[in-house]
Amino acid sequence: MVPRSRGGxxxxxxxxxxxLGCNVKKGGRTPQEAHMRLVAKPTxxxxxxxxxxxxxxxxxxxxxxxxxxxxxxxRV
Length: 76
Known about the structure:
- The protein is mainly α.
- The protein has helices spanning 20-26, 49-55, 64-67; strands spanning 46-47, 71-72.
- The protein has a two-stranded parallel sheet.
C-alpha cells in the first residue's frame, strides 16, 4: 500500500476505510509505518439492489466514483 499523498493509486486494493481517530493516527504513512494492521484484506465491495437505489439520490453522488464498478451479487 502506498498512501495517496505519496502518489498511491485510488484503487480498492490501496484505499481502506477507517474511523476518524485511526485515520488521523495513520496520517500519510503506510499501515506498517504507523504500526497498525488491517482488520481485513481490502476488497471491492459487492453491489446490492438497495445500493443502486441509494446511489440515485444526489445526496450520495460523491460515492458513485467509488462504487460505479462494484459488481452485483444476487443470491437466491
